[in-house]
Amino acid sequence: MLRMPDTTLLAVVTRDADSRGLRIAERAGAVAFVTALTAAAAQVSVPLPFTPVPFTFQPMIVLLGAMALGSRLGAMSQVLYLLLGVAGIPVFAASPLPQGIARLIGPTGGYLMAYPAAAFVAGWLAERGLDRHYFTSVAAMACGLAIVFAGGVSWLSLYVNPGRGIGAALAAGLYPFIVKDLIKLLLAAAVMPRVWAFIPRR
């Protein structure tokens, strides 16, 4: 049975707040926390010699954060992350490109710009109960990850051997990462069901 959008993990945790103002403050703090986690995950990156796309843990943070926050707040956390980056605050992964808007228009910009959409979809699915069980959590996160890769590879195709079409972009921006990211996804998907299992005992 589908759950209503106000029963995300964040909504359940904050609904006992004494006032509407306190609930808003708690939810704003949760959005800022996910934004900060996304920025922190970007700092743990491994550059690869054969592609401009570094290996990071960001996609899993984006998706898990969105599943906890819900669609709108999840997307908002990633819009805030991008705005901080565009403002020049060093929240993006290490790169030859300078911090700032150059990252969004550079080769890896498609991955970054896909974060809000991926967060919205993962959060929307979580609002409908897919975050409470392992296999449905895997499915929800896989949908979000697919959006990240679709945005990233499509944008990367404009930079990596444009004459070779999408094949070169897939070789540089999908194939080296898909197995590792799926393994990370299978591990990360266990987080939300375990947290939900804890909630009734509180």
Question: Could you explain how this protein is built, in words?
Answer:
- The chain has a single domain (9-201), classed as Arp2/3 complex 21 kDa subunit ARPC3 (Orthogonal Bundle), CATH 1.10.1760.
- The longest helix is centred in the first third of the chain and has 24 residues, at 20-43.
- It is 65% helix and 2% strand.
- The chain has 202 residues and is an all-alpha fold.
- The chain starts with 8 loop residues before the first helix and ends with a helix.
- It is built from 10 helices and 2 strands; from the N terminus they run ααββαααααααα.
- The chain is globular, with a radius of gyration of 17 Å.
- A two-stranded antiparallel sheet has the order 1-2.
Structural topology:
Elements: H1 9-14, H2 20-43, E1 45-46, E2 55-56, H3 58-69, H4 71-86, H5 102-105, H6 109-127, H7 134-156, H8 166-173, H9 178-188, H10 191-198
Antiparallel strand pairs: 1-2
Helix pairs in contact: 2-3, 2-4, 3-4, 3-6, 3-7, 4-6, 6-7, 7-8, 7-9
Feature tags:
202 residues, two-stranded antiparallel sheet, globular, mainly alpha, Arp2/3 complex 21 kDa subunit ARPC3, 2 strands
Instruction: Estimate what percentage of residues fall within beta strands.
Output: under 5%
- Counted beta strands: 2
Broad shape: globular
The number of domains: 1
What's the N-to-C terminus distance? 24 Å
Radius of gyration: 17 Å
Summed up, the helix count is: 10
Runs with pLDDT <50, length 5+? Answer: 1-5
Q: Quick one: biggest sheet? A: 2 strands, antiparallel
Would you identify the CATH architecture? Orthogonal Bundle
CATH topology: Arp2/3 complex 21 kDa subunit ARPC3
The CATH class designation is Mainly Alpha
Strand order of the largest sheet: 1-2
- Nearest-integer average pLDDT: 87
Following the backbone from N to C, one meets helices and strands in this order, namely HHEEHHHHHHHH
> Portion of residues in helices?
55-70%
- Structural class comes to mainly alpha
